[in-house]
Design brief:
Helix content is 21%, strand content 30%. With 305 residues, it is of the alpha/beta class. Strands 5, 6, 7, 9, 12, 15, 16, 18 and 20 form a nine-stranded parallel β-sheet that branches. Strands 1-2-3-4-21 form a five-stranded antiparallel β-sheet, covered by helices on one side.
Length: 305
């Protein structure tokens, strides 16, 4: 009787021990599989990061290459980057949908710096400022000259509302002062320096479903434009993009953005009204073809193959 009990107990312990052993082996195998999968994912993600870096520092063709068992293929037409790891035993990968970032997608976009000095602009999350693009869109001055409704010449002149008409307005002089004007469907192009917006000015740029125009364009790279150096309740309302080949100083005003310049300096807190005018955050007329630029790419969507 005792012998039978001992034998049964031994069998139970043997079965239990075998079960524990099998469980331990399964856990080890699962851990090894998980570790291997993680290694593959890290390798694929590493190649994806390298591919995006290559795209943003050189030609689009650099996005297609091989690194060991991992291949990267970039399609510049669909803006998709496919990263695939393939071995005799395993395969995995990702498909990345990219988007091209540009200055006019941002509340503030600069070639060099944005100096905020702890001030803010209260922009919407999709229009977060970006500095150090490394270049600026180039103004096609001939485009504006050929399409100008009025060209204003002469230095050291002050223009009031009664002096101006709506449309594409080109100012070729230095020391131009704009005071208390209200213009709709208007783009103002300034080729000189010493441009001064005084008191309250309201400028709204033309836009429709297919086209958008900037509101203010300053083509001199040595000039710094102020919004707004007047004190008291006076402030400019600019609805549409402001572009400066030089720099822009933001002190006071009601702006839809985007603001695009070599450098932008904040001297006070601003409150952009970009939430009311998202239609201006598109590639505008007068800066050449969008496809002529090699824009930085960023990930819009990341999904496994």
């Amino acid at each position: 009787m005792y012998i039978i009990a001992i034998m049964v107990t031994a069998i139970i312990f043997s079965i239990t021990g075998l079960g524990v052993l099998n469980l331990a082996q399964a856990v080890i195998l699962d851990a090894q599989t998980a570790a291997h999968t993680l290694e593959n994912q890290i390798e694929v993600e590493s190649v994806a990061n390298i591919a995006i870096w290559r795209l943003n520092t050189g030609a689009d063709s650099l996005g297609s290459f091989s690194n060991g068992d991992v291949t990267s293929i970039y399609d510049s037409t669909t803006l998709t980057l496919t990263i695939n790891l393939a071995t005799a035993d395993d395969s995995c990968g990702f498909k990345l949908s990219l988007e091209e970032d540009h200055h006019f997608l941002r509340a503030i976009g600069t070639r060099n710096t944005i100096s905020q000095s702890s001030y803010g602009i209260g922009e919407e999350p999709e229009h977060v400022p970006r500095e150090n693009f490394g270049f600026l869109p180039e103004v096609d001055l001939s485009y504006w000259i050929n399409r100008a409704d009025t060209i204003y010449t002469g230095n050291d002149r002050t223009y009031y509302d009664a002096d101006l008409r709506e449309g594409i307005l080109v100012f070729t002089g230095d020391g131009v002062k704009i005071e208390n004007v209200e213009l709709s469907n208007t783009t103002m192009i300034f080729t000189g320096t010493g441009i001064d917006f005084r008191r309250n000015n309201i400028v709204s740029a033309l836009q429709n479903d297919s086209l958008v125009y900037p509101a203010l364009v300053f083509t001199d790279s040595t000039f710094t434009f102020f919004i707004n150096e007047w004190f008291g309740s006076r402030k400019d309302h600019i609805q549409g993009a402001i572009y400066a080949a030089g720099s822009i100083l933001l002190r006071k005003g009601e702006l839809s953005g985007p603001v695009v310049a070599r450098n932008v300096f904040l001297w006070r807190n601003m409150d952009f009204i970009d939430d009311q005018y998202p239609q201006y955050y598109r590639w505008p007329q007068g800066f050449g073809s969008f496809s002529a630029y090699d824009w930085p790419k960023q990930i819009a969507l990341w999904e496994p193959l």
